[in-house]
What we know:
Elements: H1 3-11, E1 18-21, E2 28-30, H2 35-42, H3 46-52, H4 55-72, H5 81-85, H6 92-109, E3 110-112, H7 114-125, E4 129-134, H8 140-146, E5 157-162, H9 163-166, H10 175-183, E6 190-194, H11 197-206, E7 210-213, H12 218-230, H13 239-245, H14 253-283, E8 288-293, H15 296-306, E9 311-316, H16 319-323, H17 329-333, H18 347-353, H19 361-365, H20 378-387, H21 389-409, E10 417-423, H22 426-435, E11 443-449, H23 453-456, E12 461-466, H24 473-481, H25 484-491, E13 497-503, E14 506-511, H26 516-541, H27 551-563, H28 567-574, H29 593-602, H30 604-613, H31 625-632, H32 636-640, H33 648-661, E15 668-672, H34 676-687, E16 691-696, E17 705-707, E18 710-713, E19 725-728, H35 734-743, E20 750-753, E21 760-762
Parallel strand pairs: 1-4, 1-6, 4-5, 6-7, 8-9, 8-10, 10-11, 11-12, 15-16, 15-19, 16-18, 19-20
Antiparallel strand pairs: 2-3, 13-14, 17-18, 20-21
Amino acid sequence: MNKYKKYLLLLKNPNIKVVSFDIFETLAFRKVKKSSDIFNKVTKKSFVKNIFFTRDNFVSARVFAEKRARELNSKNEDVTLTLIYDQLPLDKYQKKKIIQLELEVEYKNLYINLQIQKWIKLAHKHNKKIILISDTYFSFKEIKLLVLSKLKNKKLISDIYISNTHQLTKATGNLYPKVLQDLQIKPNELLHIGDNAYSDIQMAEQKGIHTLYYGCDTYIKNLFDLESSYIPFLNKNHNYRVQASLSNPYIKEDEKVLFNLGALLFGPVLWEFSHWVNTLAKQNNISQINSVMREGKIFKKYLSKVNKNLDVNLIYASRKSTFLPLIDIENMQNGNFNFYTYRELTVQGFYDLFRLKIKNSTLKNISYEFLKDQAIILDLISLDIKNRLDEIKSNSVKEKKYFKKYMKQKNYKENSISIDFGGTGSILKNMEDILETQKNVHLNVLFYSHSGAKQKMQDSKLFSFLEYSATNNKEIELIRRNHEFIEILFNGLNETTLYYSKHKKSIEAITHTNNRSLHLNRTKLTAFQKGVDSFFKIAKKYRLKENLYSKKELLLMMARLIEVPTIQEASVLGNLYRDENYDDAKPIKIVSKQNLNMIKEIGLEKSFYKNSLSPSFKINEIPWVQGTITQLDDTYIQNIKSMATKGINSDSVSKILELLDNDITIQEIYVYGAGELFKELLPHLKQKNIKIKKLLDSKASIADFDFHGFRVQNIVNTKFKDGDYIVVSSVVFAVEITKIIVENSQNKKLKIINFYNDILEIN
């Protein structure tokens, strides 16, 4: 059940009288990636520049001022913007002016979440009182200026509870009782919606309040962390992508992840690709686009969303269907025929290429076995083909004639654009050669091209969205080597074209009808395309323009997916069934058991480095080496490339380990905090042979639960002994957790280890 449906269900609860919304990252989003980017924009103002001289001077001073203000105001639970600026060496006028500039920048970079705007209206329709609750240094007046002034239905907001106004926060849980008291309602009469899993959800639920989490799941956070490491210059706001993912309706992991891949990655990719093609058509005064199946359908869908006036033709064509019209009979007569080219076909598939029936009884018996497994009878096939060259020639002439008539039926214009997924552009080249198109007026477009494309299409006008160059050859080669699962996603549920046939007075494209892989992939491919739809819906809703992301950024985002996938991506994409239309062969997964065993046998390290040195490593046996390795060890590649999640959690882990190393007698510890930091800390504790006596967390106040192989319990039920060590595995709430430990110490002499202190001893 997606968030919207959960919300509607909660609105129908007659006990709920009040609905509260968090403000930042729920009701309102920033157009920048992080709050410090606001400070970067402030420092561009000449007034600020004249005082602080450089960007770094102001940004570091602003960050330090907030930290200092919180330290000085530690008895209270929050600070104000004025108190923050009081920590800077500025006169009264300068402070007032820079605060005004910061508010102006915030205003320009804040936009209302249209979904939550709609939710506010829905709550009103259900006769619920609506309030806002926020932990922020902005005052009530500043929030009205920054947020409410942009909200269409602001009159529906009854009240706003700001942490610095009441000196109470959601993070401590103390703001919620204040709200309940003021409104004179019971906890179960309030529904709170927010994006912070701790302050908006956990702390509210501890008070007995209904909640709805409006934020990213772990997979999305991991994806963004990896992207930030893989693409250091990717400093873009991801909120539009996040909003697209928030409408995910799926519960099953594979469908959920594929929806997110559509919303978060391929939605932006297809958005930019569609705009790029549209611009190319405008620049060349072209109205007709010939979108070659099978990915032609997805290209047509999104091109039409960008420009409804484009005449997008779906052209059924493939390597198979354009092979026979261009067959070189003379070359075959001279014996220059390489069976290796067709090694992935079955015997039946090979004969189908030439539109021949198998007459030889021996070949009939092995018709659904692959050529690569039939080396001993290739001479028999070769002789049969040689004896039937006249038949092949006749079929070739007929297929060429049919294809030309088919394209005439499609109103094909030479002054048009033909689009295919990519590689070298073989299908587009074949189409031009069959039609004898004037290559100076016709444009060929590839979604991506590698090094062989320009040579293959040297006589044609070729444009590539993701084009091979000296600076991006590594990323293009990654797509070239591992293109299969991307093609599966783009091809959707469409079958490949086999040949063309006359039906009454028209020519029909005959497609494959027995691709079992498509049936097995059906629900996953549907989920993927719904994710792409979701991004386009968000982009249209907010009237976004093209060039949200550069082609270089998009290429790197795709390369990251291939080279450093998350475990969810490796598992879900690896479980897609390969879609090469190998006749009626048994469907095989992108990452099969055979692939996993092969990598195990070779060894992870050897496989990784061999693949890094040569993209052709096991190319015909292992479709996706990195995905296979990740299924065996989910952090192996991340660690090799120093891309394991970085940031404050990593700093905290280092500090905690440093403190533990100071006392070599520590053999066992308690850990408070069952979250992401604990997962990062755990392997280090195992390496040091430090036993975890208990994993504690306030989330276990209602009932114990399992997390990462541990039973999580409430601290209230824990009996400590003098000298016990407790590690606080949280950064944001380290101070609050330390207080909880002190309150539940049972007068024992405990030693608390957290990010902010040396070992804290309490009596």
